Amino acid sequence: MYKTRKLWTPVSTVIRRARPTTCRLTPYSPNSQIQSLPSQLETSSRVPPRYGSHFLANLKISSKTYCSQPAVKIDTTTKRCWNCDAFADGTAPFLYCDFCRSIQPVDFSIDYFQIFGLEKGYEIEVDGLEGKYKDWQKKLHPDLVHSKSEKEREYAAEQSARVIDAYRTLSKPLSRAIYALRLEGVDVDEEQTVSDPELLTEIMEIREAVEEAPDSHTLNQIQSEMKEKLEESSNSFANAYQSRNFDEAVTCIQRMTYYQRASEEITKKL
Amino acid sequence: MAEPAYTVASDSETTGEGKSSSAFPEIAIGIDIGTSQCSVAIWNGSQVELLKNTRNQKLMRSYVTFKDEIPSGGVSNQLSHEHEMLSGAAIFNMKRLIGRVDTDPVVHASKNLPFLVQTLDIGVRPFIAALVNNVWRSTTPEEVLAIFLVELRIMAEIQLKRPIRNVVLSIPVSLSRFQLTRIERACAMAGLHVLRLMPEPTAVALLYAQQQQQMIHDNMGSGSEKIALVFNMGAGYCDVVVTATAGGVSQIKALAGSATGGEDLLQNMMRHLLPNSEKLFSSHSINEIKSMGLLRVATQDAIHKLSFQESVQIDVDLGNGTRICKVVNREEFEEVNQKIFEKCESVTIQCLHDAKVEIDDLTDVIVVGGCSYIPKIRNLVKSVCKREELYKGMNPLEAAVCGAALEGAVASGISDPFGSLDLLTIQATALGIGIRANGNTLVPIIPRNTTMPARKELIFTTVHDSQTDVLIVVYEGEAEKAEDNHLLGYFKIMGIPPAPKGVPEINVCMDIDASNVLRVLAGVILPGSQQPVVPVMEVRMPTVDDGHGWCAEALHRAYGSTLDVVTVQKKI
User: Fold this and answer.
1) Which fold has domain B433-567?
2) To the nearest whole angstrom, how far is the Cα of B26 from the nearest Cα of chain A?
3) B-chain residues within 8 Å CB-CB of A142?
4) Are B369 and B396 in contact (CB under 8 A)?
5) Which ranges carry the J domain (chain A) (predicted)?
6) Is the peptide bond before B396 cis (omega within 30 degrees of 0)?
7) How far apart are CA B564 and CA B543, in angstroms?
8) Do A16 and B511 make contact, defined as CB atoms within 8 angstroms?
9) If you average pLDDT over residues B229-248, what whole number do you get?
């Protein structure tokens, strides 16, 4: 599964850059970007396995086109706007130049937490995310840069997509947990087979209970049980993460994944 | 692709009032093509203004008459729509018919319109024709729409004294991407370039966002996030969205729609008044069309009156010896159309559910569109949302076109010194998109209500040993059975090296950009290999042209399950 992902994800990043982003009726011609796919894929296969949907995280390796500098953490004070050459003021992540209002190329050293002005961590204030997300979209959304250069429209498409992804990732506990761990260099495979015998037994029992549930009342009961357990493992994840016990954290994520899935299955049945 | 000269003009944001002639020509106009009525609006530099035709009308009937050599539409034509309808020469309801095949229930429901809609039920486009000098002259919904759009364009060009090219069109939520290509084609035929196709209730949501911004500006409202439900029902469609707006930015939380509208109410009512009407009018002779038209006009009139009075007297002579003389009350009307109202209710409930919004969190409930005058419609939305009052401050018939005009200005890069155009709508997908897999089911890859731009992927595998080819059939819709959805296109991946079934990993990735363009990518890898074994395919969808219903069946007949794929099961 990893192979597919690490191989595949850059493919989608390539088309984001290759396609026209402005109008629906622009005739689309398969251009040279497409032909260069194999080499893009080859380059990207050296990327360490990553959580699937965060394809953009791989971009810095596959796209030599506009990341001429090595992907090392650059001090924010040295960042300059590609358009007006102004220095970033360093108070906010530099996605957008306040002087000339131009959108900056994606900088992967800025993580999702930084985008939202948050300290890296699992327990965050989710309520504030939406407002911040909208503030960013108002500056970065491709709809608003029709009159700008093609280069900047590409930046808009990428930055906007990355902020959507960041918002999606951080607003849900499970994806947030996986992302937080990933920033610590721990990759979690959601699809990995469960090996914890205790959890396995539990899974079997719950599955049976769901299958044999006589009415929606019982299903509702099981679901609220699932939600409770999800909450519990979320708390234990927070503790494990805090104390940097990443093995334990991974186990918590496995549990969260399962409880959430079970809860979704029940919703489907209801 | 702005011209350099234009770039200079729009980059200087200090042009003051925005009325300077150099900035003006770029603004895209907003068009609301209703099933029954149509309107055009534009940002005039300080506000949205609806354009009027030579008869001083802001709302024009959406129809085209094929009486003379040059067809004419409801924009310029002086004769009344009602009269034209009796001759069989007027074609209307094109928004209901566009891009549909002859197996579609909506097409079937159009068969007793006072012009010809013939179906052969084989999944090709229906035969549509107008009666001209006692001869059926065939046409297509695209052609009718294009003729109408040309008239609208000319009307706008005369008034604005400049050529019009860019438009933002409001469209029903439930239209498939295939239907959208037909609308784009009609626009292209009319010399118009579509800047955006905007689902109608999201256009209303944009107007709402602007009004909220205005209130903050006038120190009358709070800057906190407002969540609104927009219910929009016209003659052809019933659409709902839930939007969350703050600081001029609206996030569309969920959309739901159905091809259910005033036309259905009308037909049920006609059937109620004249139970065997379908049989009576089966040959579509000139006399039958006349009777049909008379019944239609009388019924329509009665329905309008029932919005404001409890009962109505219908007295119509159909000219064929049948005279309908009947008093109909509101209760009767509501009973006859119970199923329609139930459908409207379920669309609203589904939208609220998908948005994951509690009704207590709704700041406002907005009901617009021609059907919003019907008391039952207002009441059912109120009751679903548990509200006493609906949002005021929008003209129900003009809200969508105003929103489209705002989007036209925003998308044209116009800015307003007072911040009235400081707006952004973050759209979501209205229908799920997936491929046919696991036998004959639709496996969604991008589910509905996904924020755009969106990209998702899923892994599939082969069903036979040494299967070298797979067929990727892309559908759009919510039905479980693949063929009950809208076919968008298909392509084959060929030359997969022989391997046991279930071994090759076929990765299908779908990508929708901010302009709502859909691309499907597919690649295959085998275990142990780092590279795709065949070149990755990228296909822009939809690829199908007319007769797509037929196409899906032919594919199935020709290939059976030989080129099938199945999903790779998630391990729980």
Assistant:
1) Substrate Binding Domain Of DNAk; Chain A, domain 1 (2.60.34)
2) 11
3) 453, 513-515
4) yes
5) 111-183
6) no
7) 20
8) yes
9) 95
- Tell me which residues of chain A, numbers 251 to 270, contact chain B at a CB-CB cutoff of 8 Å: 258, 261
Evaluate whether residue A189 is within a structural domain.
no
| Domain count within chain A | 2
Distance from CA of B3 to the nearest CA of A (A): 9
Distance from CA of A9 to the nearest CA of B (A): 9
Is A143 within 8 Å of chain B by CB?
yes
A21 band by pLDDT with thresholds 50, 70 and 90 = very low
Residue-wise pLDDT for B40-61, tens only, equals 999 998 899 999 888 888 888 8
Give contacts of A15 with chain B, Cβ < 8 Å. Answer: 511, 519, 521, 538
Q: Is the peptide bond before B453 cis (omega within 30 degrees of 0)?
A: yes
Q: In B, which residues are within 8 Å of A37 by CB distance?
A: 535-536
pLDDT given for residue A2 in this prediction = 36
A129 located within any domain: yes
Q: Which chain A residues in 111-130 lie under 8 Å from chain B, judged by CB atoms?
A: 130
Residue B97 scores a pLDDT above 70: yes
What is the Rg, in whole angstroms, of the alpha carbon atoms belonging to chain B?
25
Would A148 be classed as within a structural domain? yes
Closest-CA residue of chain A to B407: A143
The reply to whether A188 falls in a domain is no
Q: How many A-B residue pairs are in contact by the CB < 8 A criterion? A: 146
Cβ distance of A1 and B196 shorter than 8 Å: no
Examine the domain organization and report whether A118 and A245 are in the same domain.
no
Residue type, A193: T
Contact A144 B424 (CB under 8 A): yes
Q: 């042209």: which residue's tokens?
A: B545
Residue A222 sits in which domain range? 197-269
The whole-angstrom distance between A184's CA and the closest CA on chain B is 25
Asked which of A161, A183, A205 is the last residue of a domain, the reply is A183
Identify which of A8, A22, A194 has the shortest CB distance to residue B523. Answer: A8
What count of other Cβ atoms lies within 10 Å of the Cβ of residue B505? 23
Q: Do A12 and B509 lie within an 8 Å CB cutoff?
A: yes
Residue ranges covered by each domain of chain B = 433-567
**CB-based contact A21 B513, cutoff 8 Å:** yes
Contact B188 A26 (CB under 8 A): no
Distance from CA of A75 to the nearest CA of B (A): 31
- Average pLDDT score over chain A: 71
Residue A191 buriedness (CB in 10 A; 0-12 / 13-18 / 19+): middle
Residues linked to residue B116 through DSSP beta bridges, in sequence order:
B129
Which residue do the tokens 């790779």 mark? Answer: B568
Q: Are residues A23 and A46 in the same domain?
A: yes
CB-CB contact of B30 with B192 (8 Å): no
Task: Give residue A23's identity as a one-letter amino acid code.
Answer: C
**In this predicted complex, what is the ipTM?**
0.70
pLDDT at A56 (0 to 100)? 32
pLDDT tens per residue, range B515-558: 789 999 999 988 877 788 888 999 999 888 765 677 777 888 88
Q: Which of A22, A38, A134 sits opposite B249 (nearest CB)?
A: A134
Set of chain B residues whose Cβ sits within 8 Å of the Cβ of A164: 451, 453
Q: How far is CA A153 from CA A18, A132, A156, B459, in A?
A: 12, 21, 5, 31
DSSP H or E stretch at residue B135: strand B135-139
Which segment, A140-149, A221-230, B252-261, is predicted with the most confidence on average? B252-261
d(CA B193, CA B179): 17
Together in a domain, A104 and A159: yes
| φ/ψ (deg, to 5) at B5 | -60, -40
Model pLDDT for residues A53-91, shown as the tens digit of each residue: 333 333 333 332 333 333 344 444 567 888 787 777 767
Q: Strands B166-171, B135-139: parallel, antiparallel or unpaired by DSSP?
A: unpaired
Search chain B and give the residue with CA nearest A260: B572
Taking CB atoms and an 8 Å cutoff, what residues of chain B touch A34?
538
